[in-house]
Design brief:
It is a multi-pass membrane protein. By secondary structure, the protein is an alpha+beta fold. Helix content is 41%, strand content 24%. It is built from 24 helices and 30 strands. Helix 10 runs antiparallel to helix 11 and helix 11 runs antiparallel to helix 16. The two termini are 112 Å apart. The relative contact order is 0.05.
Length: 870
């Protein structure tokens, strides 16, 4: 319906209504006929059954020896006389005595019998073998009222409804005639309506009216429709205003409306024109006209009128303003995409050429390139050059330039204002810079120049020069203003890049000064490392390798959250603290506990100083490897777990409890002790290696596992490089620290141990055993000093300590003497007075050894001393 014309819709609607009425009448008639047929069948069935049941001799016939012989002829005669489909006589058990079909006699009747046996009448509708029928069952009563038999009569409903079926064709014929008459009358009305509406539907008619109204009153362009005879059929409000038409203009000849001759002739002619300009009064109108009969319409034409009086004057200025705004917008978006001074200068010249100038150069003071504040006097360096073609005789990138005082660039730097040299061939001050080069520039075709200082606040960072060669007209004052605004926007980005260069350089210098420059010498681990600072900003990642007593080595990796100088300084404080705490030979969990307290104190100190931010978080992993037992004890504070590469190439991450980051406090740290086969590898790293904006930490850990597996056969140095190559992101946003440590073992031939009885007499036996061991190691030169050291340390352990007492000699890069006992009391070095009898033993030990100290164990303490090997 929505796509048909209005006439078609009216026609279809009327036909549908007539059809609905006819269908409703037929359905009602059929329902009524069906109801009447059923009711008539019920009445006839009951009447015939009761009449036959009460007929004379019925009781005697039922009681006769052969009821069928008596009743069958009577029942058939009655059935035919009453026009019933069947009359059945049966006994009280429902066994038939009569039936129109003899083969059914003697069989049980199908129907409801009990109400009739009780003396009532049963009427029901059933689907019998002869179709849908209505049957009635009545009792046959003896004179005493006893039911001695039953009589059933039935008739199909189609036999009863025969009259109605004969009437139905008459009804349908009448309905068809009514439909035909209604259709004919509707067609006449619809045909007339279609001619008047041109076959349009309601939506099209509504839309046509809305468009017509909009054209008349809302369109800001004049519209005129002229008939084939030259009479004005329609003029909207804008056309009446532009042509100054009289109020009664419609239906009048166009030539009689008082228009100028050329315009009136054009509108009356109906010829096709496009943007033909006519002067109508004081207005300059652009007229577009098309004939209407080309598309099968009536004769005539349609013309549109557009006032272009101010358009030409404004178009030039609008286009220039649009280009200017577009360039400034592009400057805001395209300049300063990186915090690099040179790159920012290149972005400025790339934007200016060729949209504003044919060549553009940027000259900056050397101090700006280094991130420092420049002086207004001094040489500049050509930082960026862009041009529409190559071969321009301008200074090249990297050239150092000192402009003479009369040069436009020097005047811009001195006055902090833009300078326009409209005609370079007539600018002696500019030509005085370099007579030979300036002559080449003019011969090359460059004829106009604007110089603008790069100013950031009170600082003058350099000067930008815009050169013109292709366009013959020189730069004008309006273009000077645009150049100043363009350079002002770029100056902010250049100054930001300068400040970043300075701060980044300071931070990197500080960071590198706080990190280890070389690794200490030790034999327990073969170590390779990588430290990669972030591309933007400086982070707080650090690492350390710390030799401990007993040939052990500590590995440390940490990360201070954040970037900048504060993070680097905090990293330095934490690294220094780890150095100091490791000198105490503390277990990993105790060392992290002290670091946690230190970070908490730093936070408290920084919180009182508004100029500094508190440490927002720090993580650390501390591992101690003992080459004698091949055990590695690890604890971590919120740091990623270490990776263990077994000698067979299998990689797993050590299950070390994570712990809270440093500074949060409240919970102790836990340790895990791993037994590493010789040739295993430990990989310690910071989160910058496995996590960035483009991948989560789980993906990074899996990539690290794969890289370690593939490089398991290489050296630690090769493994480091393979890991970095596989995981380094395209743009590194965080510091990366990585340590790969290949484990070694101190063999049994380099270790000697003895249990010492808690008896002063045992000291001599220990000395003798130690001397024999030194002889086997070809270290006889150290026998005297070792004998004194062992005597003092073992004697102190027996006298002041408690059992068990053990002595161990280790031959590593030094000779290490260790004496352990079960006491936690530690001896102290002091200077004995001249009158003191004792107190000089530890002083002698300190003088004879390279270093000595005490470390505590869960079962007591160990006093150790190291002597350099000869």
């Amino acid at each position: 319906m929505g796509g048909r014309s209005l006439a078609a819709q009216v026609f279809v609607l009327q036909v549908v209504i007539v059809l609905l009425l006819v269908v409703a009448a037929v359905v009602a008639l059929l329902l009524q006929v069906r109801h009447d047929s059923t009711q008539e069948a019920r009445n006839r069935s009951v009447a015939v059954a009761e009449t036959f049941a009460n007929s004379p001799g019925m009781v005697e016939a039922l009681n006769s020896p052969d009821p069928t012989a008596v009743l069958q002829p009577r029942a058939e005669a009655a059935r035919k006389a009453s026009d019933m489909d069947f009359i059945v006589v049966m006994n009280t058990d429902g066994i038939r005595y009569t039936h129109p079909k003899p083969d059914r006699i003697g069989k049980k009747f199908v129907g409801t019998l009990q109400p009739a046996l009780d003396g009532g009448v049963v009427v029901e509708e059933v689907n019998g073998t002869i179709g849908r029928l209505v049957q009635a069952v009545v009792p046959v009563k003896a004179p005493d009222g006893q039911v001695v038999g039953l009589v059933s009569s039935g008739i199909t409903t189609e036999h009863v409804g025969g009259n109605a079926d004969r009437q139905l064709p008459l009804v349908l014929g009448s309905a068809a005639l009514a439909l035909l008459l209604a259709t004919a009358s509707t067609a006449l009305v619809s045909r007339r309506l279609q001619r008047q509406t041109h076959g349009l539907g309601p939506r099209e008619m509504t839309r046509m009216y809305e468009h017509h109204d909009a054209v008349l009153h809302a369109v800001r362009e004049g519209v005129i429709i002229v008939g084939g005879e030259g009479d004005l059929l329609l003029a909207n409000d804008e056309a009446q205003r532009l042509l100054d038409l009289p109020p009664d203009a419609e239906r009048r000849q166009v030539l009689e409306l008082g228009l100028d001759r050329e315009t009136a002739r054009l509108l009356a002619s109906g010829r096709m024109v496009t943007d033909e300009v006519h002067l109508v009064g004081e207005r300059l109108l652009a007229i577009n006209q098309r004939p209407t009969h080309l598309a099968g319409g009536p004769a005539g034409s349609v013309a549109t009128l557009r006032d272009s009086t101010e358009l030409r004057a404004l178009s030039g200025r609008a286009e220039a303003a649009r280009e200017r705004l577009d360039m400034l917008y592009a400057a805001g978006v395209g300049i300063g995409t990186s915090l690099d001074v040179t790159r920012t200068a290149e972005e400025l010249t790339a934007l200016a050429v060729p949209r504003f100038a044919d060549f553009a150069t940027v000259d900056l003071f050397d101090a700006v390139l280094d991130g420092e504040e420049p002086q207004t006097q001094g040489t500049l360096r050509r930082t960026a050059v862009s041009g529409i073609r190559k071969g321009a005789p301008l200074y090249a990138v990297g050239d150092r330039i000192r402009f003479v005082d009369s040069a436009p660039q020097a005047r811009s730097l001195g006055t902090a204002r833009a300078v326009l040299e409209a005609r370079l061939s007539r600018a002696p001050g500019w030509r005085a810079q370099d007579l030979e080069r300036t002559e080449q520039v003019v011969e090359f075709g460059i004829h106009s120049l604007i110089t603008v200082p790069v100013r950031a606040g009170t600082l003058i960072l350099g000067v930008v020069s815009f050169w013109r060669s292709e366009r013959p007209d020189p730069f004008d004052p309006d273009e000077v203003a645009l150049a100043e605004e363009l350079v002002a926007r770029a100056a902010i980005s250049i100054d930001n890049a300068r400040r970043f260069t300075r701060e980044h350089g300071m931070a990197v210098t500080l960071q590198r000064s706080l990190l280890p420059r070389t690794l200490p010498e030790q034999n327990a681990l073969d170590i390779a490392y990588r430290y990669l600072p972030a591309q933007a900003g400086v982070g707080g990642d650090w690492f350390d390798v710390l030799p401990l007593s007993g040939a052990r080595v500590a590995l440390v990796v940490g990360d201070v959250v954040g970037h900048g100088l504060h993070a680097a300084a905090t990293m330095g404080r934490l690294r220094t603290a780890v150095h100091n705490f490791s000198a105490l030979d503390l277990p990993p969990e105790e060392l992290l506990g002290l670091l946690d307290e230190l970070v908490a104190r730093i936070d408290q100190d920084e919180a009182g100083d508004q100029g500094n931010a508190a440490v927002s978080g720090a993580t650390c992993l501390y591992a101690i490897y003992d080459p004698v037992s091949r055990r590695c004890t690890i604890a971590r504070a919120g740091h990623p777990p270490p990776a263990v590469v077994h000698p067979d190439g299998r990689v797993e991450y050590a299950d070390v409890p994570a712990g809270l980051p440093l500074g949060l406090g409240g919970l102790p740290f836990e340790t895990v002790e791993l037994e590493l086969a010789e040739g295993s590898r430990l990989a310690l790293y910071t989160d910058g290696l496995v996590e960035d904006r483009e991948r989560d930490i789980d993906t990074g850990l899996e990539m690290l596992r794969t890289a370690l597996e593939r490089s398991a056969d290489g050296s630690p140095e090769e493994t480091c490089q393979a890991v970095v190559d596989a995981l380094l992101p395209a743009r590194q946003g965080d510091d990366i620290a990585l340590i790969v440590a290949h484990t070694r073992a101190l063999g049994a031939e380099r270790v000697a141990e003895w249990d010492v009885p808690v008896d002063p007499a045992a000291v001599g036996e220990v000395r003798s055993a130690a001397m024999r061991q030194l002889a086997r190691w070809d270290l006889d030169e150290l026998s005297f000093a070792t004998e004194l050291i062992l005597s003092e340390l073992v004697t102190n352990a027996i006298r002041y300590g408690s059992g068990p007492v053990r002595v161990r000699l280790l031959r590593d890069r030094t000779l290490i003497c260790e004496v352990s006992d079960g006491s936690s009391t530690s001896p102290h070095l002091r200077y004995a007075a001249m009158t003191d009898e004792g107190g000089r033993g530890l002083f002698l030990v300190a003088q004879l050894t390279e270093r000595w100290g005490t470390r505590y164990t869960p079962k007591g303490k160990v006093i150790w001393a190291e002597q350099p090997l000869p």
